């Protein structure tokens, strides 16, 4: 089970921001080795009598519906909370998505920590350095501006199916989706949960700046580890 929503994304682009919330919730479930099956939601917005707030709400709900149809994850229920504001401003629109998944085989349960020395760290998906609406932009430069990271749902589904297929084949030892904070935070979270004595070495051929590489919040990316001996396995298929 996972819950996700980035209010900055939804504030800047309500429809795509809500789609990203669905995609990230599904991605987190997949990283555990489970198949996403359904969502619930908690939709938090300001005063709906304000035309801008009502438009945010309409666009976000539309985005959730579009994404759920493609992920085949029905909305089982949820709630709506309006008038979340002070005299000066409304909260960021936050349509929080709760996703549940089904883990058929408990032995396939996958966690985020790195497991063993000499394992390969591999990116499933493309590191494209999207800094719009990122934690880095907010915390370091005190800015909340877009464009937000682009989401191609068809590609997202392919990445998730690839990861889940590899987990079921016993190839993947750890899986952690790239989200808030980007690659640097992703690697640090996995490292901090790892057993004592393990280190991390990254070798990346890229044209991205350091800040784009380390803190870009690219969508449709899962960082996984596998044994070196299995790094050349060509048996993986994305099953439709």
Overall description:
The protein is an alpha+beta fold and 240 residues long. Helices cover 35% and strands 19% of the residues. It contains 7 helices and 7 strands; from the N terminus they run βααβαβββααβααβ. The strands form 2 sheets. A 4-stranded mixed beta sheet has the order 1-4-2-3. Strands 5-7-6 form a 3-stranded antiparallel beta sheet, sandwiched between helices. Helix 2 packs parallel to helix 3 and helix 2 packs parallel to helix 5 (153-168). The mean pLDDT is 94.
Query: How many H/I helical runs?
Result: 7
Mean pLDDT, all residues: 94
Residue fraction in strands: 15-25%
Q: Label the overall shape.
A: globular
Measured distance between first and last alpha carbons? 23 Å
Largest sheet: 4 strands, mixed
Structural class: alpha+beta
Total beta strand runs = 7
Helix percent reads: 25-40%
Strand order of the largest sheet: 1-4-2-3
Order of helices and strands: EHHEHEEEHHEHHE
**Unreliably modeled segments:** none
Which oligomerization state do the chains in this entry correspond to? single chain
Rg, Å, rounded: 18 Å
């Amino acid at each position: 089970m996972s819950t996700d929503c980035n209010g900055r994304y939804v504030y800047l682009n309500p429809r795509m921001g809500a789609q990203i919330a669905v995609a990230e919730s599904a991605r987190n479930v997949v990283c555990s080795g489970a198949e996403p099956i359904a969502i619930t939601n908690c939709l938090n917005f300001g005063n709906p009598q304000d035309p801008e707030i009502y438009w945010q709400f309409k666009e976000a709900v539309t985005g959730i519906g579009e994404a759920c149809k493609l992920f085949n994850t029905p909305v089982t229920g949820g709630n709506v909370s309006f008038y979340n504001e002070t005299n000066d401003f409304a909260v960021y629109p936050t349509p929080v998505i709760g996703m549940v998944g089904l883990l058929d085989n408990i032995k396939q349960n996958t966690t985020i920590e790195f497991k063993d020395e000499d394992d390969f760290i591999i990116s499933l998906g493309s590191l494209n350095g999207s800094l719009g609406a990122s934690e880095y932009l907010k915390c370091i430069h005190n800015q909340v501006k877009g464009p937000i990271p682009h989401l191609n749902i068809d590609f997202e589904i392919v990445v998730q199916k690839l990861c889940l297929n590899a987990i079921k084949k016993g190839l993947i030892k750890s899986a952690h989706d790239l989200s808030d904070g980007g690659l640097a935070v992703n690697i640090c979270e996995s490292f901090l949960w790892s057993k004592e004595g393990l280190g991390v070495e990254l070798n990346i051929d890229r044209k991205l700046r350091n800040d784009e590489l380390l803190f870009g919040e690219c969508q449709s990316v899962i960082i996984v580890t596998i044994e070196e001996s299995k790094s050349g396995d060509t048996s993986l298929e994305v099953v439709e």
